[in-house]
Amino acid sequence: MGVLDLKAHRIARKIKALGEAALRAGRLDELHTQLEDKAMQEEHVVYTVAGVAKLLKVTQESVRRWIRAGELDASKIGRGYRIDRPALERFWQARGGTRLFTEDAGAGD
Q: Are residues 62 and 91 in the same domain?
């Protein structure tokens, strides 16, 4: 199991625990808010050039070249770039790759 899968699995377990606790306490509105917050955090995962290179098993220069060519959307922060998760997923699938991130973190167990 990769590092990203492990992190996603931990988030899924936390969400499940939050849901069970809220249901026991009858706090469905609170559960809904917490789940929305978790989903927002998931969408705002960002990667560095080095992180993307490691994930895709390519060189950092390849990632920079894709960014400069406009193939991979990235934000310039200081002297480096940050790539958000949805942009990375779109880029990879456009190149014929399979899904990088699973919806169900426990599916890879």
A: yes
Structure letter (DSSP) for residue 101: S
Residues 39 and 63 in one domain: no
The answer to whether residue 78 sits within a structural domain is yes
Tens place of pLDDT for every residue, the chain, 109 residues? Answer: 455 566 777 777 777 777 666 666 666 666 666 666 665 555 568 899 999 999 999 999 999 999 999 999 999 989 899 999 889 999 998 988 787 776 543 333 3
Q: Which residues pair with 82 in a beta bridge?
A: 48, 75
33-46 burial, b if ≥16 CB within 10 A, otherwise e?
ebeeeeeeeeeebb
- What is the DSSP pairing of strand 46-48 with strand 75-77? unpaired
Number of structural domains found in the chain: 2
Residues of the domain holding 93:
46-98
